[in-house]
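**Reference record**
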Amino acid sequence: MEKRMFGKAVVYFLLGVFLLLPPVVMAEILDKIVAVVNEDVITLSELREISVPYLERMKAQYSINYDEAQVKETEKRILDQLIDEKLVKQKADSLEIVIEKKDIDMAIRETREKNKLSEDQFKQILADEGMSLEKYRGQLNDQMKKMRLLDQEIKSKVQVAKKEIEEYHKEHKGEFDAPPEVRLQQVLLMIPSEASTQEIDRIRGKAEDILQKIRNGENFNVMVKLHSQDSSAAAGGDMGVFKKGELMPVLDETAFGLKRGEVSSVIQSPMGFHILRVLDKRESQKMTEEERMRETEGIIYNKKVEDKFKDWLKELKKKSFIQINI
């Protein structure tokens, strides 16, 4: 059976066939198609392409052994997200939202320049993730369509009143003075839960080799893609922004002692061996009244967009044909 089948007639034909097939054959087909979303289908292979790596990362990072019920529950949550993505894409297509080739080219070029990657390095990172450039372009096209859809259907209809800003600011006034923050990128080599002393020494040696390559001029982003075992590796090792005290003590002290752009030595934690790089850093500072109001408006606006999107998606689901077979 083909991985994807399109067209309303094809879908309805398949649904009719389901009713005529013997139970054993029907079960086999339902194992292939896990959801029908209007004219599209989601296959088991599509679902497992996401769920299997996710479960493996969680097992490696947190030493979690999922039982069958937990695997099914995780796959159900992922399937719900895939259904949402299908609905959003279908809506964007129905509104004839089109992303030009030049816009995709520009987005890829900006990503490469931001991460200081040559074209060959970029392609190699995609290959290491099991992804072709063509597939990446397709995913980027879908993401950009979604953003334009949100701008058109949601964001353009959200407004924040001055009274809302003043009331929120009054209730949360003490929360706006900014504490020290640091945005980190890391290479992490995990230590297995039952690793021997020899195995730990081997992993430490590998981490030291990676650090030496970085200090000899190797691109940190490439080292992340090639070696990091943390879940943040998919985002280029970007761990996000942390306030002073939010990290593990052994990482916190080192991270806030580095300058912007600096790379740490190899740090051992209960998780494994870390190499940190400071992407950005902000010292403690008090916001002006104007900055507080602008920050308040942003918080309220983002919350309204999130709530409106949830309501919009809920209504879209009500109007759609969705059949889940898992």
Summary: Strands lie at 33-37, 40-43, 181-190, 238-243, 267-268, 272-282, 322-324. Residues 8-82 form one domain. Residues 1-30 have pLDDT under 50 and may be disordered.
